Amino acid sequence: MYSENFKESLAAVEAARDKNIAYEPVRMTAKQKEDLLAAFHPDYKKEEFSELKIGANKGDKVPHELAEMLQAHSRITADAVDLESPDYDVDVLVIGGGGAGSSAAIEAHEAGANVMIVTKLRIGDANTMMAEGGIQAADKPNDSPAIHFVDAFGGGHFAAKRELLSKLVCDAPEAIQWLSNLGVEFDKDKDGNMITTHGGGTSRKRMHAAKDYSGAEIMRTLRDEVLNRQIPVVDFTAAIELILDENGKASGAVLMNMETKELYVAKAKTVIIATGGAGRMHYQGFPTSNHYGATADGLVLGYRVGAKLMYAETLQYHPTGAAFPEQIFGALVTEKVRSLGAKLVNKNGEVFMHPLETRDVTAASVIRECLERGNGIDTGNGLAVWLDTPMIEKIGGEGTIEARIPAMMRMFGQYGIDIRKEPILIYPTLHYQNGGLDITPDCMTTNVENLFVAGEAVGGIHGKNRLMGNSLLDIIVFGRSAGQSAAAKAKETTVGKLTLSHIEKFEKEIRDAKIETNAVSPKLLPDYTNRAKKYL
Amino acid sequence: MENMVNIFLFGKKYSVPENLTIMTAMEYAGYQLVRGCGCRNGFCGACATIYRIKGDRELKACLACQTKVEDNMYIATLPFFPLVKQVYDVEKIPATEAVMMQLYPEIYACVGCNACTKSCTQGLNVMQYIAYAQRGDFEKCADLSFDCVMCGVCSSRCPAGISHPQVAMLARRINGKYLAPGCGHLEDRVKEIKNGDFNELIEALMQKPIDELKELYNTREIEK
Fold first, then answer.
1. DSSP letter for each residue of A371-408
2. Rounded to 5 degrees, what angle do the CA atoms B109, B110, B111 make?
3. Structural domain for B139, as ranges
4. How far is A462 from A287, CA to CA, in rounded Å?
5. Do B42 and A410 touch (CB under 8 A)?
6. Is residue B222 situated within a structural domain?
7. Dist. CA B200–CA B196, nearest whole Å
8. How does the average pLDDT of chain A come out, rounded?
9. A139 to chain B: which residues are within 8 Å by CB?
10. What would the mean pLDDT of A234-249 be, rounded to a whole number?
11. Catalytic pick from A223, A282, A338, A431?
12. What CATH number corresponds to the domain at position B20?
């Protein structure tokens, strides 16, 4: 239900709907995209970044909020725990209970390792759970891993580490098969063929989905499998500092009970960081589509023991965050809405771009439409453009929305908006951390031995922008791989004397660089108390 | 000034802006949430909440992140509910009715009160999907339960002690693994990759100069 303020613009959208469905907008040229990004994409706003003064990426620029966390004090000093009597002693310690962490734990367990998951919330409280649209894999006859590679490499501005990207695309079909064998219910036709669609920037229809609960369906299945295997899950417990051994190898972590604040020592032969993204850092004041715990913890943990980051300055702003009503401000409106035919329309009822450009280009285009061209709709809580969802029913037939994107229908339905009949208002929302820790194809960090990384905490797989459906894919491909590699490495590892000496070493760097800060990290959770409604 | 409403968090009164969700209202009131907060977007089921509007006899259930506060709303969150999750080996279970009898026999004690359906935060027909599970119709059980976020409210209301979300989870895994038709093109592609059919193409891409890759990308054909 839209109030009177929207009526005029709504009427224009409705009047132009049939014409807009028929209209085939031209895709932008490479030059047009470059210019658009430089002028309107948040990653290009120089004043929003600061230079790191210490650590492996000294001299690099990252968002202010991340720089503060990367150069903050530890939550503890080395004498806070007794490293000689660990509370947990395992082969493989997985930090994070999302899709990557769960996949890693399953594979490490499969390889015979004694594996444990530690997670600051519950297993499954992760961005994986919230991924709606789908997962890519080149498994159709007109497609190939090579075509998938070119789509992703170009979409990521030719910056991906090629050895990581080739692993992603080549292992993709097997990842789908693995999930299928675990019981994940992908959308199929009656003959078993996968129902696939386009995502922004794909040249083949390779987006596999489970309605618009794709991530939730994958996550709950992985969680069920972890529980079936009786892999220990220590929940509501955060890793707050990595532990190295005397030889500089990752050998465990200091853990903190989120409720009682009690500290524990977990000793391990190998450690996997699978801590996910950073949307709750609210870079540049953006709202986010991310879950409550997305605070870049893994980047901080890794950076403090000397691990290198790659592309930490690149973030993904999902073009279609909900802009209205304010109760769901910033929530994800899946790209699948556009895959199914809905177009982006400005306040005058005009389609202003091809709806399936890559996410960075689409987000920048929406921002331009609102800020420069003055064609945004004032929602009372900022500007927005329309995403004309009723087009989907006209193109795909009545019932398409309920069958293919029920979560979207439910989310807006809660607030009296029937997306089958009325369009929705959207604006970009902070969605994904393109960058992260630098790894080799076996998922080990490039400069800290026995420290593995998987999922959103990795940098370099996607380059500087990620295509829809390649993140659910990477958590499975690299999650599994990290579990296998870490289990194998654990077999040949003897842990030396444990130490937290890196904390004082890092403190010295802070002092020497004359960084004045009271901040402690990792952040663990955002603080929304007494502030009300700015971020949802 | 925003319009304010009175809500009662665990019985204690707070005045909060009327446009907040229960979750953001708790934060407005000063709670730093650790439990009962996950995706904040209706997918994870962490924030199951029970409420009653003063004077109303009906006890309602919802997700705190998806529900606006109302005046005189008495709120109790249910961040954890002890569901029974049976452990099984998905590779070895039979895809028949017998598996339900073996793992979740309590579903046959359903008294048909429909409290589960009435309390579902997702508006699902819970009792009906349990009925399908009883009959071993896993496909229908999977389909009806698909949008379940496993918040556990249904089970908290069940006099028979059924853990509905776990029953549905089992049904969906059986359906996805054993009952859904197999996928020929997927199997073929996995074999082709294992066979090394794409190695040459990928190797060429690994070596190609950036300019050639740019040309390849910018002129690629896009499937309609």
1. HTS--PEE-SSSEEEEE-THHHHHHH-TTHHHHH-HHH
2. 110
3. 97-179
4. 23
5. yes
6. no
7. 8
8. 96
9. 183, 185-186, 189-190
10. 98
11. A338
12. 3.10.20.740
Lowest mean pLDDT among A202-216, A461-475, A522-536: A522-536
**In angstroms, what separates the C-alpha of A338 from chain B's closest C-alpha?**
14
In a domain, B88, yes or no: no
Please say if the pLDDT value at position A534 is more than 70. no
User: What confidence category does residue A533 fall into, taking pLDDT thresholds of 50, 70 and 90?
Assistant: very low
If asked whether residues B13 and B65 sit together in one domain, one would say: yes
Specify the DSSP class assigned to residue B181: P
Q: Report the 10 Å Cβ neighbour count for A192.
A: 15
Tokens 């219910």 belong to which residue? A185
- Both tokens of B61, joined, read 């259930």
| Listed residues B77, B108, B133: the one ending a domain | B77
Percent residues over pLDDT 70 in chain A: 99
- In residues, how long is chain B? 224
Residue A298 has pLDDT above 50, yes or no: yes
A414 in reach of chain B (CB within 8 A): yes
Q: What is the mean pLDDT of residues A505-517?
A: 98
The verdict on A220 touching B (C-beta cutoff 8 Å) is yes
Residues of B in Cβ contact (< 8 Å) with A98:
none
Catalytic, out of A198, A318, A359, A466: A318
Q: How confident is the model at residue A1 (pLDDT cuts 50, 70, 90)?
A: confident
Tell whether A28 lies on the interface with B, counting CB pairs under 8 A: no
Name the band, by pLDDT with cuts 50, 70 and 90, for residue A231. Answer: very high
The token duo for A174 is: 């097997």
Q: Which of B32, B48, B77 is the last residue of a domain?
A: B77
Same domain, B148 and B204: no
How many whole angstroms separate alpha carbon A32 and alpha carbon B170? 50
Q: Does A231 contact B at CB distance below 8 Å?
A: no
Domains and CATH numbers, chain A: 4-40+316-430 (3.90.700.10)
Overall number of domains in chain B: 3
Identify all chain A residues contacting B187, using CB atoms and an 8 Å cutoff. 177
Q: Is A338 a catalytic residue?
A: yes
Q: Do B193 and A411 touch (CB under 8 A)?
A: no
In this prediction the ipTM stands at 0.97
Residue A289 touches chain B, beta carbons under 8 Å: yes
Q: Full-prediction pTM beyond 0.80?
A: yes
Same domain, yes or no, for B14 and B64?
Answer: yes
- Asked if residue B120 belongs to a domain, the reply is yes
* B59: alpha, beta or left? (left if phi > 0; alpha if psi -120 to 50): beta
Interchain contact B169–A (C-beta under 8 A): yes
The reply to whether B143 falls in a domain is: yes
Cα angle, residue A89 at apex, residues A84 and A95 outer, rounded to 5°:
110
One domain for residues B188 and B120 = no
Q: Is the pLDDT of residue A532 over 60?
A: no
Structure tokens belonging to residue A101:
């962490």
